[in-house]
Amino acid sequence: IPKIASEGLAEFCDVFCEEGIFSTEQTQKIINAAKRYGLKPQIHIDEIVDTNGALLAASELGNISDRRTYLLLGGKWGLPPYLIKESGLNSGFMMVQYSSAGESFIL
């Protein structure tokens, strides 16, 4: 990582957190090293087996600055929020699951 960063060969550091590749602990060490050297981490987690890597990803989300959150949600790249064309019932979200999830609540 130090050599790649010092020679400007990469902007990102991709880590594949998966059983038999990198554990969540190893992934965290790689992410920390990448950030120390100015590389932006990109984590590929639980694509094949559930390694509880989502917890690691959630902890990293807490480290996003207000500015980066604004850029992510502000449409800087010309993408609609949540990458959907339309909002509401025609958004493509699974309405049956969302509506049935609220059935157990009594108002």
Task: Describe the protein.
One of its GO terms (molecular function) is imidazolonepropionase activity. Keywords: Hydrolase, Metal-binding. This protein is an alpha+beta fold and 107 residues long. The protein has a domain at 2-63. It contains five helices and two strands, in the order H-E-H-E-H-H-H. It has helices at 2-6, 24-36, 53-61, 66-73, 95-101, and strands at 12-17, 40-45. It has a two-stranded parallel ribbon.
Mind sketching the topology for me?
Blueprint: H1 2-6, E1 12-17, H2 24-36, E2 40-45, H3 53-61, H4 66-73, H5 95-101
Summarize the structure.
The protein has 107 residues and is of the alpha+beta class. It has helices at 2-6, 24-36, 53-61, 66-73, 95-101, and strands at residues 12-17, 40-45.
Task: Supply database-style keywords.
about 110 residues; alpha+beta; two-stranded parallel ribbon
